Amino acid sequence: MVLTGECFCGEIRYQISGPLVDPLACHCSRCRKAFSSQSSNYARVDSGDFQWLAGEERLTSYVGQHGFGLLFCSVCGSTLCGTIDSSVHGVVLGCLNEEPELEEVHHIFVDSKASWEVMPSDVTTFSEGRPPTDRR
Ligand SMILES: [Zn+2]
Ligand SMILES: [Zn+2]
């Protein structure tokens, strides 16, 4: 299944021709700021499965610690992708146009969540990161 995504204003569009892997919602204070939300909502893609369809010239980026960066629409501000060393590493789930087929989303760093966020009771949570054996 080919998935598409776009930013809020629609100037930037992309498609993904492979699976979304390891969906995570990280509730740490850094992710709240990076994703302007109660958590990240993010899944990895193989960079070879990812293709910009329109508006790539409107992207802007911020690269934080460890070479992990985020790509934004310079018009509307939507956060579209994460990058490692300038290649696409994953996508922000909120910008997908279709309902993706996903593994269960793991909620991590829930001990750091904002006081105003109410966690649903039927999701898999981790106080901090996942134990190494759980990581794929
Ligand atoms: Zn936009
Ligand atoms: Zn985080």
Structural commentary:
The structure is a single chain. With 136 residues, the chain is mainly β. It has one domain (3-134): Metal Binding Protein, Guanine Nucleotide Exchange Factor, Chain A, CATH 2.170.150.70. Helices cover 4% and strands 37% of the residues. It has one helix spanning 29-34, and strands at residues 3-6, 13-16, 21-26, 42-44, 50-54, 59-63, 68-73, 79-84, 87-92, 106-108, 124-125. The strands form two sheets. It has an eight-stranded mixed β-sheet. A three-stranded antiparallel β-sheet has the order 1-2-5, with no helix packed on it. The longest helix is centred in the N-terminal third of the chain and has 6 residues, at 29-34. The structure holds zinc ion (ZN) (2 copies). One zinc ion (ZN) binds at residues 26, 28, 30-31, 40, 109. One zinc ion binds at residues 26, 28, 30-31, 40, 109.
